[in-house]
Amino acid sequence: MSEQNQPVRTPSFSETIKTEVVCPNDTNPMGILQGGVLVQWMDIAAAVCAQTHAGCISVTASIDHVRFFSSAKVGDILTIKARITRAFTTSMEIMVEATMRRVGSSEIRPVSLAYFTFVAIDHLAHKKAVSPVILTTAEEERLFQLAGKRKEKMLQKEEK
What we know:
By secondary structure, the chain is α+β, with helices and mostly antiparallel strands. It has a single domain, classed as Roll (Thiol Ester Dehydrase, Chain A). The chain contains 3 helices and 5 strands. It is globular and about 45 Å long. It starts with 10 loop residues before the first helix and ends with a helix. The model has no long low-confidence stretch (mean pLDDT 94).
């Protein structure tokens, strides 16, 4: 595909929305969604987002700043939204937000927020360069800048 035919790589181009219903098998004995199950669902949404942006297989490199705000229970409907915040050379930061609502209710509550880092790879599992993110809003610019700060902080920790 020529460069002219490449899709514009805005955050909305690769945004991924995944919906899940909390079933008994996803919960602890109290009927509350297990955090690990939620993180797995979030990882899948983030992978689809990263792979759509990169146009190739992308693998999880890290999961940072996982925060849980409220619990979800059996029967609740979860919406998991994954959106790229920044593309680096071969890696991408994906912000994933999970919200829930109870059947019959219109109230939407935040459940979790996390930042996933994915690395694009080729068919031999070697790192592959990714296209930059084209920012279109002030909010996208803000998230882009914060992603850079998170990466810088992470690199400083690794140096120690």
